[in-house]
Fold:
Amino acid sequence: MKKEVKIFDSDIEYTVNYRNVKYPRLEFRTGKLHLVLPRGYKNEKKILEKHKNWIKNKNNEIRKALILSKKEKLAKRSLQELKEYVINKINHPKKKINKIYFKKMRSKWASLSSNKNLTFNVLLRYLPSNLIDYIIFHELTHLKERKHNPAFWNLIKIRYPNYQEREKQLLIYWFLIQDKIHKI
Structure:
């Protein structure tokens, strides 16, 4: 059910989902706020109030990304072309990857499992090559550092000193792709 909350000067639409979770959480997926609550949880307003600064900041970030996404164009690459591109970039004997998969993912561009399996979102096919390269490097960096901690980001900075700009571009493209997919 769609609801609305006033956060500072903005009316923000949100949905509430009750699930078998231990703790409440907030998610921004495809630009919309979702409140995930344990079954029987009654005080959704308390969660929203507690995290109002985070909600405001994330909402502003997403609104900016949505505006900027209107200026970008999507790449036109087939799934097969994406697979070949990624595999050619990774196919190096020093990179200890078990398997590479491609599938549609709801909230990630890619992931690396503990078994060293790489999974790439098929939506990467719409990204420019420089962002695909960044995502590949990001995932391969997880071979050295599993978590997104300062050590991880320092490794990323070696090749991408302006990695924050790449992260912003990925957010912009995420919304652009979601918008295009839902119109198809």
